[in-house]
Design a protein that fits this description.
This protein is an all-alpha fold. The protein folds into 2 domains: about 100 residues, no CATH class; about 30 residues. It is built from 5 helices and no strands. α2 packs antiparallel against α3. The longest helix is centred in the first third of the chain and has 25 residues. The radius of gyration is 17 Å and the shape is globular.
Length: about 130
Amino acid sequence: MICKIALKEKTEQLKTELYALYLAYKDPRVPWYAKIIIVIIVGYFVNPIELIPDFIPFIGYLDDLVILLIGIYLLRKMIPKDIMAECRDKARTKLNNGMGKTWVVTLVIVIIWLLLVILVLRFVFKITL
C-alpha cells in the first residue's frame, strides 16, 4: 500500500514537472538551447517510432523513463532556478484547478510534427506542396 502511494506521488510530481517545462518553454527568459531540449523530449514522446517498442514488457517503458529523466536533469541545469520554481508553482496551481487547455498543447504538438513531416518529404522526395 505504501509503495502504491509513493508511486502515485512520483507520478504527480512528474506530471507537474513536465507541465512546468512546457511553461518554461513559453517563458522568454529561458535560453534558446533549453527550449530546443524541451522540444526534443516532447517530440520523442509524441513520436510513434521509438527506440524500444512499448509492447515489450517493462523494457519498452524503461527507455521512455530514462530519456525523460535525463532530459529533465539536463533542463534543470540549463534553466535558471528562479524561473523553474515559478513555472512549477504555476503548474501546480493549474493542475490542481484542472488544466482545461490540454487540447491546445496537443494541437500545437500535432501541428509541429505535421510540419516536420512535410519538410522531410519535401527534402527527401523533392515534393512541392
